[in-house]
Amino acid sequence: GPTYVHHDWNAWADYKAGKYFHLTLGRGKNFFGDGLRSLFLSDNAYSYPYLKITTSVWKVRYVNLFGAMSDIRGTNGRWNDFDLKFTSMHYLSWNALKRLNIAVFEAIIWQDNDPDYRRGFDLNYLNPVLFYRPTEFSLGSPDNALLGFAVNVRVGRESLIYSQLMFDEFLLRNVRAGEGWYGNKQGLQLGVVGHDAFNQPGLTLRAEFNYVRPFMYTHSDTRQNYAHFNQPLAHPYGSNFWELLGQAEWRKDRFVVSEVFSFAVLGQDTSSADNSSYGSNLFLPESARPVRDSEGRPENFGYYLSDPSRVTLYHSELRAGWLVEPRSGMMLEAAWTMRVRTPEYGQGLTTNFFRLGISANLKDRHVFQDPRYRLER
């Protein structure tokens, strides 16, 4: 039978260059934002090599992040055949007021697998201060660029209201028209988190809403989509969904009890013979939209969230444990996970499983997943 090997090693080295600069070179994951999810860059995908330069001056923190990603489709797991692509990201965070933080995020993705032109790492994207869109235009570039904004407001001593607004592409007149233009690619996050909530020491509560339009994070050249190792780089559901989640955690001495739940509505492409895309599959080009006329031109309008086939997904995980070694997070733990997936067409599936054992917080667990596409082996 087939043999499978999986590893996910992480390592990094830090260097503090003077008072203002911090350099990190390693292999691992990064996360931008204050939510349980991030629409900018999340840590749910596989590890990758990266260089991070963090500059802290006055009330400003500025991060340059350069990474090497892989497109693994069609390689049947052969590492040497993975298609290499690069990412270059900026994250600028400014404490504008005592309780107000404003942030700007931008990312560019380009591939190194054009047989006619081996680009390697494009040195134009090393410029640490300018927006990438002007660089793109100056290069005549077809690369994939994204732009995001965040506003966070601190309330009281231990509470935070946070938000993210992410743009892949849009035209304001088409947003206002409300006709479901495919190019209206936006994502929105709103959330609130409170530590020591209701004056209860050790109690953390969170509520969060995520909304991502169809075709968000996709690209005309799928090698440049916002994904790595066949996993989305932002929200694990990719695009064409909305989600409401809640989280509660209570710590008392060495005892920990936590509950996290997510209710999501997802748009699922139908299994049509033409393999048309309605915006939920990051690994189909946006040109794969349904055909609108005899000349084979794709339909431009009528793409709404949860179309064409609606799937509801409920996921809950309740955990209780006792910390054996608090510094490592080693814990005796009992947990119950329930997952209910209800498609508009076809059979629903309810899953319950229990576990009892010893766990350690060596890495984040991402149990909220859903197959939005099939891997091309």
Offer a concise description of the structure.
The chain is built from 2 helices and 17 strands.
Computed over alpha carbons, the radius of gyration is: 22 Å
- The helix/strand order is EEEEEEHEEHEEEEEEEEE
List the uncertain runs.
Answer: 136-140
Percent in strands: over 45%
What does this molecule look like?
This protein has two helices and 17 strands. By secondary structure, it is mostly beta strands. Helices cover 4% and strands 48% of the residues. The chain has helices at 132-139, 172-177; strands at residues 11-17, 21-28, 48-57, 60-71, 83-97, 100-111, 144-155, 159-169, 185-195, 203-212, 227-228, 231-232, 241-252, 255-268, 309-325, 330-343, 349-359. It has a 15-stranded antiparallel β-sheet. It has a two-stranded antiparallel sheet with strand order 11-12.
Task: Using brief descriptors, characterize the structure shown.
single chain; 377 residues; mainly beta; 15-stranded antiparallel β-sheet; two-stranded antiparallel ribbon; 2 helices
Topology overview:
Blueprint lengths: L10 E7 L3 E8 L19 E10 L2 E12 L11 E15 L2 E12 L20 H8 L4 E12 L3 E11 L2 H6 L7 E11 L7 E10 L14 E2 L2 E2 L8 E12 L2 E14 L40 E17 L4 E14 L5 E11 L18
Antiparallel strand pairs: 1-2, 2-3, 3-4, 4-5, 5-6, 6-7, 7-8, 8-9, 9-10, 10-13, 11-12, 13-14, 14-15, 15-16, 16-17
